Structures are given as structure tokens and as C-alpha cells.
Amino acid sequence: MTGLPPAQRWKQDTVYQIYPRSFCDSNGDGIGDLPGITGKLDYLQALGVGVVWLSPIYASPNDDNGYDISDYQAISPEFGTMADFDAMLAGMHARGIKLMMDLVVNHCSDEHHWFQQARSSRSNPYHGYFLWAEPQADGSPPNNWEAAFQGSVWEWNEPTGEFYLHMFSRKQPDLNWENPQVRQEVYALMRFWLDKGVDGFRMDVINMISKPWKADGTLPDAPVVREGFLQPGFALTCNGPRLNEFLGEMRREVLDHYPTLTVGEAPMATVQQGRDITHPQTGSLNMLFQFEHMDLDSQPGNPLGKWALKPLDLRDLKHTMSRWQDALYGVGWNSLYLSNHDQPRPVSRFGDDERYRVESAKMLATWLHFHQGTPYVYQGEELGVPNVAFPGIGDYRDIETLNFYQVATGQRGIAPEEALRSIHTKGRDNARLPMPWSAGLHGGFTSGTPWIAAHPRAGQINAEKALADPDSVFYYYRRLIALRKRLPVMVDGRYTLLLPDHPQVYAYTRCLDDKCVLVVCNFGATEVPADLPDHTASRKAEWLIGNYPNHARVALGNLTLRPYEALVLELI
Ligand code: TEU
Ligand code: CA
After folding, report:
1. Among the four 21, 307, 331, 430, which has the fewest Cβ within 10 Å?
2. Is the pTM of this model over 0.90?
């Protein structure tokens, strides 16, 4: 499909996210690594992805599995060497696959020499790289903010007699972006990787870099939403006053000088921020990861946050997806994702991971990939890998999960089985189990002992089995990814929601010039009539792709959908 100008061709690409620790272990130490990735590049080429987003591989004490970096220009020895990295990048480029590295610069590790220096004395030249504050008169922390992984965002630093800020773990001190030296450090490390041939960045919590400083140089308390507890400071630190200024400077200083693809992770982003930051002319990044559709199955305002479960109401999903589709049409660009290394497995969360696992995995992929934006496939999603429910907390590794369990069953007095139910449903380790390559030992991930247990269903659900089955979820993803290269309407078509109030059927059209496709998805395990609006039901339609055997001509007037059925039809 040559219609798109070269600078826009990235819009035809699908991105595959690799979580290196769990992808493929090449040396039997139970930890995935770079030679392991290089050995699987043919698999990615067969899937047809155009870009790989690689979660952090830098030197790190792994308090948060690499999202705590102690040296931005060094490969963590457990992942391999710089030579292994160069070989992996060369292998990707030889297959026409671009590489986006993870840029984690809202914070670094407390073991980074910047922080080691900074915490030694207030006069150390690196002290200003971080965010310090005096205790309150009673010695308590400067404000009431809660960190993402429980506890206060403030940690006491004895050598300098003050607190430092960490929005995530205490081993992830936030960097002071108000300090121009810090920004120049970031631009230099970005250039280091871009000069090596890297094609872009996924930017970790990038909308948290500008803090809401008060005129007196302090950070305000968060509104009290739960008596007697710390308060969610996230909302205050996201989308701060100088965010666009910093991103604009990054664009001018670095991104404008290289052909880059960029996506910013932006919790609590608004559609207006989506437009401002991803605007094709005036924006700073190509796209954002916004989280609205990731928060629909947790109780709003509940102190337990994501752990307070609530069934998804499909109408809420329609509402949020349609708002972002409509708001960014022609003036920005969406990223499309249902999972990543922080989210549970979509087939378990939004589908059915037992009887209709294959059908619902394909339905969700169809539903997502036909929206306008860049689709992301998280490792294992292309196999329909489900969640896991380990019986005890001992099998879990993720700091967010372990801290939640400790606080929930401790000071909050929640029953362990109740806390475990939330972890089974929402825990990040659901996404972080070893990739099931075969039915072999540990799913063929390692010849050693994996850092976290292999998936208990790897025997039935694995890449080897999928590659041998033409009807597998893998080949369905391959067809969707190939269609994006062939169908301009899939890239540039205008999105229009149908049936906004239907609780089980999600239907929408994408139209470009005189071409329209209709996408109809059944989010339930029961047969359901589609009840399409007359203006659509009266049209003739030709089958394009679907997760049940095809129909050629489809009568839209009395369309009944089978359990988790997805249909994409060209309206003629
Ligand atoms: O995640 C930021 C973020 O928003 C997550 O904390 C998310 O809300 C949460 O995990 C959902 O439960 C990024 C990285 O993706 C994550 O892995 C890191 O832990 C975090 O930043 C800190 O770097
Ligand atoms: Ca290894």
C-alpha cells in the first residue's frame, strides 16, 4: 500500500513488546536475555511486526525489574553484552524490524552514581539532580502523597538530613527535570542509543516529569479522599505545568535530528493532552499510552485502586474508546493496547480463557486492531496466553504485587484469599511468566530454573503448537497485521460507533473516501442478534476477516453473532 508518504509509513506498523526477563533464556540461568531474543527474530518476522518495543535491558539492581536504572548506557550483565545488543539490533534491521528502547527518566535507581553522589551531601554537584524536602515541624514527611507501590513518596536521607521524593519504590528516586543539567544528561543518553541505530523510544511515565511546585518551592498535599491514609499523589504529578515545554525541548534537542518513533506512557492523560502531545505538526511525540480503558474494571475512587475489582460494563469501554478515537482523528494518533508488562492477560480479563479462549482472543484482537491507531501486541498475546492463579504469595515476584499483599493483609486487615483474588485478576506477574515456546520443560523457556514459575498451561498453549495449527491465534494475528499493510481504511478510516447502548455487541465502522468497513464483535459467551441500525443493516456486505469460518455474502438485516464472534465486513 504505497498511498502513505514515507514519513507516515510507521502508521502501517504493528508493535511487538518484549519483556526480556521472560522472553527466551539462551544460557540456562533462568533469565531471558538478548541472545535469546536474537534467536527468535524469525518468529517475530513470521508474525509480521514492524517494530519491537523492548522493556529495559540496562544495568539495574532490579528492585522494579529494570525500571530502576543504575547505568543508562550499560547492558545489564544478566541480559548479555553490548556486542549481544548490536547483534540483536542488526538481526532486527536485517528483517525490516525497528527497535524502540524503553526510556525511564522520570526516575533512576538509587544505586545510580548520580544518586550515590547526590545523597552524600547537599553541596554535591549531583544533589540538584533529585527532589529534596525538609521534614514538617513534627519530623513527618513533607506531604501526604502515597507512592505507586504503597507507603509515602518521601524517604529519609540521613547524610543530608532531608527527604527525597520517589513516586514509585524508594529505590527509584525521581529526577529533577527543572534542572537543565538533568535534561542534558537525558538528551545525551538518548543520542547514545540513537547513534547506535535504535529507532525510537517508549517513554516511561513521561507525563510525570514536571512536578506541581508551589510558589514556596514545596509540593502541595493531595486532596484527602480516604481518612487516616496517605493520599493518591499521582493525579497531581501527572501533566505538570512544564510538561509540554520539556517535551518540546526534547523534540528540538534530540528527536528532530533522527528518524524516530516515540510513544509516551501517560497515566491520567486527557484527550486534550493526547491532542497537544501527538499533534502531527505541533506535537512532541508520535503517540501516547493512555490508561482510561485499563481502569474500567476497578471501582472508581476506591482506596484500593486497581485492586478493588468491578465487572467491565461494555458501554463504558465504548464511551472511552470512542472519545479518544473521535478526539484525535486527524489531529493526533492513538496507541491501541489491551496488555503490556503491567496489565493482566486480555483473554482472561475481557474474554473467556477456558471454553472460548481461541475465539475470544481472536475477537479481542479484531476489535482492537480495527480501531484507528498503532496496535501493540504484548509477548504471548499472539498465543492467547491466559492469567495464572498461583495459590500462594510465595510464587509472586512483582514489587507492586508483593507490597500490595503486605499492606492489604497487614494494616488494611484484608483476608489473604481476598487479596490473592485481586492479585489473580490484576497482578502484573500475570503478564510476566516465561514465554511458552513449547510443551517442554518450563515451556521451553529455559534449560535452567526460571526466575518465576512457567505457565501451568504451557503444555497446551505454546508457540510450537500454534505454529503447527493454521487456525491458531498466532496466524490470526498475522492476518490482521498483514491487513493493516494492505487496507488504507484500516489506517486512515474515520471511526464511527454504532449501538452505543448495547451491553454485549460492540459495533463500529471505519470509512475512508468511498470505502467503509463494518466491525461487529460479540463480547459474550452467548449467541446474540446484532440489531444493526437500518442505515447499516440495509447495506450489502462482503466478508473480510472473522474468527469463525467465513460467510462470503452476509445479510446484515438479521445478523446473529456466535459466542465471542468477530466479523469485519466491507460495506458495498
Ligand atoms: O508504569 C507506570 C504505571 O502507571 C504503572 O505503575 C501502572 O499504573 C501500574 O503498574 C498498573 O498496575 C511504568 C512501567 O510500565 C512500570 O512497569 C514501572 O513499574 C513504573 O512505570 C515505574 O517505572
Ligand atoms: Ca539467560
Report:
1. 331
2. yes
